[in-house]
Amino acid sequence: MIVEAGHFALVLALAVALVQTAAPFWGARVGDNRLMLMAAPAALSQFLLVLFAFAALIWAFVSSDFSVVNVYENSHSAKPMIYKISGAWGNHEGSMVLWVLILALFGALVAAFGQNLPMRLKANVLSVQGAISLAFLIFIVATSNPFIRLDPAPFEGRGLNPILQDPALAFHPPFLYAGYVGFSLAFSFAVAALIEGRIDAAWARWVRPWTLAAWSFLTVGIAMGSWWAYYELGWGGWWFWDPVENASFMPWLAGTALLHSAIVMEKRDSLKVWTVLLAILTFALSLVGAFLVRSGVLTSVHAFAVDPERGVFILAIMAIFTGGALTLYAWRAPALRAGGVFAPISREGSLILNNLLLTSACGVVFVGTLYPLALEAITGEKISVGAPYFNATFLPLMMPLLLAMPFGAMLAWKRGDLAAASQRLVAAAAVAGVSGLAILATQERGPWLAPIGFALGVWLIGGALSEIASRCRLFEAPFRESVSRFVNLPRASFGAALAHLGVGVAVLGIVGTSAWQVERIAALKPGEQLELNGYKLTFKGVAPSRGPNFEELTGTFELTTGERLITTLLPSKRVYSAPRTQTSEAGILATWGGDVYVVLGDELGGGAYSVRAYFHPLVRFIWIGALIMAFGGVLSLADRRLRVGEPRKGKTARHVVAAA
Amino acid sequence: MRRLVKFFIVCVALSGSGALAVEPDEILADPAVEARARAISAELRCLVCQNQSIDDSDAPLARDLRVLVRDRLKNGDTNEQAVEFIVARYGDFVLLRPPFSLSTALLWLTPALLFLSGAFFIWRSARKPAAINTQSGDLSEEEKIRVKDITSR
Question: CB of A146 within 8 A of CB of A198?
Fold first, then answer.
């Protein structure tokens, strides 16, 4: 019954989404307040209905109701509870419901907290948001319904792919979708602004927090996926330039650009036309990602639900929304021109450089991912575009960006003083230069680019700290004044500096592990040992054991330096019963300097096992850096100026005037 | 050419050189030749797993190719000759770094094209005299309705 109720709620949500799309849009056109006022309750009830449907689906998974096809195909009664729950979105149908749930949630948030929005803008935003929901709800009901029953009901389910039975991956999709779908709101705001033919700084102030929230979620989601790949795939790779990874990376790059151009628009009323275009493109790239993952046009280790019919459907959704928005843009954007004037050397100028480099990089990822597909369709020629291509094209665009970042943050609006900015960055540059030279002097291994990359990471961290120091007038003003300035620093400035610092931290991790990884592959018998980066790794033997839904063979390795035992590492090989799959769990010792990473391979005969041991220097800084970035975003979100609903405290009048 | 090769090697190193798949018995005694074999393997696509290089893939075919590369190197092939040998059998499809040709020209020129056309666009719009706000101060009919809209809330 609960499943049927969920099914019914989903269809009802579709009907509500239709009303949410049509009524406020028409109301905004003819100026009918009653129709426009329908937007908010429609958005809220749509959210509640989808939430109910999603809860019903989770209930079906939790209670292992195998009479539901989706549960039968993706669950198993012996699975631990957390993976029964995460199994609900670990498949195509369920993940689409999660997608629409987040879409509806963002709509509902605007409905609930957007009292200070002009009525017409709010109506149009919710109408566009409703239209996106509507399209995906039709998609679910028509091609990917998770509530379809099976008669007779099987006794046991087929189980979730064991590689997905992992804590990081259980929560990876919700974060990722919150990011992808969060950008839908920037899209809806952009289209609403185009429909109205007006846009101003207040618009940017409404869009920025949503973009910031989506961006923070996406950052965490991507980092989780990368972390999972690192410890689960068995050799410590953390980024593969796989099409599906690229699919999540493109909206991230575009979203990062959007975040920065929206600042220019909010502060200086400039770059309007470009910001609107970026808002459209960012969400369009999220849709491209959804298409790439679900259509099966690209082979990928991650792809699921490979089905051409669904692919065509998503392609149509993508074409309608992107094409429609861009047509509207071509028609209306010329009317939006105007804005502040500024010199090339200024905060605006540096943010334009940021946008140029980020969007070029995004374009490179886009072309690299789709080029083989397009070439094969046009000429029939089959080529591969892999990691070597992306590294060769992406890095030259990223390095100037990283180099310029600290300068940008130091420059003033309108007209900046490069010499003064450089002066405040002398300390950061000095530390970066010294650390680069130190690397050059001490590391005999690694590519020539590595010391430069390392110095860049240090430069970014130093630059971010210098920015905060100069905002507090540290060493310039009395210490007590600096402290009080530090305490009163706007959270947005603090968040931005922190996010930039996070980039620096991540760069250090990326350079460290890419340049100076140590690898040992050996056939070891119990009692034998190998040397790894100053550690001694002794193989003690293997022992079988049983988990809740798998059997495993665990190797015991003692890690010592000199005579001192540091830890015992227990890498294992698991064989899951349903579906029958083998996975390998690495044994990892994480330290600040780097990770010792041991993988147990196959038995080679004579009691010897194939053993792979790695030392990944600084690797954890990659994910710590990403978390710092996301935290910077959240901190910036907590800024008074951006806080949702904040302007209600007697400021409403001013905002409305600014908007009108 | 030498600079190109150097860049090539740098990129290989940056792309991460780990391996799930290389088994202890495949490794060559000479570390220099082994390093070359690893660098080549990271550039060749596994035809079974599609999105992995043969260096990462644990498919039997990938293993055969790794062993083949090592055999060629042991017999005195240069890196280029070893790669050519594989490409002659499997086509350009195995190269994760597509060679520059007429059909991949656009691919390789993409970064420069995007950056330069973007820079040109910015330069052109910055040169244009600053847009003067030509709109009159009066409100249009539509705007009057909006004002009424807002004030009546």
Answer: no
Cβ separation B107–A368 shorter than 8 A: yes
Judged by CB atoms closer than 8 Å, whether chains meet at B24 and A521 is answered as yes
Show residues of chain B in contact with A381, CB under 8 Å: 92, 103
pLDDT in tens, B117-149: 999 988 887 776 544 444 445 667 777 777 777
Which chain B residue's Cα is nearest to A366? B110
pTM: 0.89
- Judge whether B133 is closer than 8 Å to chain A, CB to CB: yes
A-B contacts at Cβ under 8 angstroms: 166
As given in the structure block, the two tokens for residue B12 are 């290989």
Cβ neighbours for A621, distance < 8 A, ≥ 6 positions apart? A505, A506, A508, A509, A512
Examine the pLDDT at A649 and tell me if it is beyond 70: no
pLDDT at residue B153, as a whole number: 61
Q: Which of B10, B118, B126 comes nearest A359 by C-beta?
A: B118
Contact between A240 and B145 using a beta-carbon 8 Å cutoff: no
Q: Per the CATH hierarchy, to which homologous superfamily does domain B2-94 belong?
A: Cytochrome C biogenesis protein (1.10.8.640)
User: Quick check: is A523 in a domain?
Assistant: yes
Instruction: From A107, A130, A165, give the residue that closes a domain.
Output: A165
Nearest to A549 by CA among A231, A165, A90, A66: A165
Helices (H), ranges, A296-346: 308-332
Residue B26: exposed, middle, or buried by beta-carbon count in 10 A (0-12, 13-18, 19+)? middle
Above 50 in pLDDT, residue A648? no
> What does the mean pLDDT of chain A come to?
88
Examine the pLDDT at B14 and tell me if it is beyond 60: no
Q: Is B53 on the interface with A (CB under 8 A)?
A: yes
Residue of chain A minimizing CA distance to B46: A384
Query: ipTM, 2 decimals?
Result: 0.86
Q: Assess contact for A228 and A168: CB atoms under 8 A.
A: yes
Domain that holds residue A497: 389-517
B115/A236 CB distance under 8 A = no
